[in-house]
Amino acid sequence: NAGVTQTPKFRILKIGQSMTLQCTQDMNHNYMYWYRQDPGMGLKLIYYSVGAGITDKGEVPNGYNVSRSTTEDFPLRLELAAPSQTSVYFCASQRSRAADTQYFGPGTRLTVL
Amino acid sequence: GIQVEQSPPDLILQEGANSTLRCNFSDSVNNLQWFHQNPWGQLINLFYIPSGTKQNGRLSATTVATERYSLLYISSSQTTDSGVYFCAAETSGSRLTFGEGTQLTVNP
User: Which value, to the nearest 10 degrees, does the dihedral of the CA atoms of residues B103, B8, B36, A107 take?
Assistant: First the structure.
């Protein structure tokens, strides 16, 4: 299994541009998550999904959108990028609720100039 | 929501030393996990431990749910143990809340 994969690894955006961060998992996990990690900080939850067609906001959803049309994929959309969205973005998946561990992708480092 | 606090924020050790990292949480938890973020940024799950004690090689963890804290023990530390250690807790709704982490540096 490849686990959780994310693309791209790095990206530089100009203010106002849009982009989609891709996340795919091949473990047939129902739960998927997007986090952001600012320098020297912990992870903040942006959005999560408990299954295909179901998404919900996390702690810091403003400026982002998600969709979950399949079990495997959970893309994160940035509309009108702002410097405050400069961060490292991690996608994670989990087999079931609570009684399981989360598995993380390698991250996408995004810079907005 | 739940508050997760980790201590110490920074820790510097000589190779071979032992250490204890602490995680306090403000509410009862369904899920408590410890992660290691290596210097390249990769996050690796160490333990799923909402209560009790687990061991994996030189690492072990104990969660005392009734007193709302968890401890991560690292014995005979190695330079490869360097990085940031996070604990994360969930009360309900499958949402983990992360602490700010402990930055561990192990010098040769």
Answer: -60
Q: What is the mean pLDDT of residues A57-68?
A: 95
Distance from CA of A50 to the nearest CA of B (A): 8
C-beta pairs of A73-77 under 8 Å, 24+ apart in sequence: A73/A22, A73/A23, A73/A24, A74/A23, A74/A24, A74/A25, A74/A32, A74/A34, A74/A49, A75/A20, A75/A21, A75/A22, A75/A23, A76/A20, A76/A21, A76/A23, A76/A34, A76/A46, A76/A47, A77/A18, A77/A19, A77/A20, A77/A21
Burial classification of residue A1, based on how many CB atoms lie within 10 Å of its CB (0-12 exposed, 13-18 middle, 19 or more buried): exposed
Q: For the residues A95-107, what does the mean pLDDT come to?
A: 83
| pLDDT tens figures, B71-97 | 999 999 999 999 999 999 987 766 889
Average pLDDT of span B56-68 = 96
CA distance B89 to B33: 7
Q: Which residue of B has its CA nearest to A108?
A: B41
- Taking contacts as CB-CB distances below 8 angstroms, the residues of chain A near B33 are 101-102
Res A1: pLDDT: 75
Query: How much is the pLDDT for A100?
Result: 76
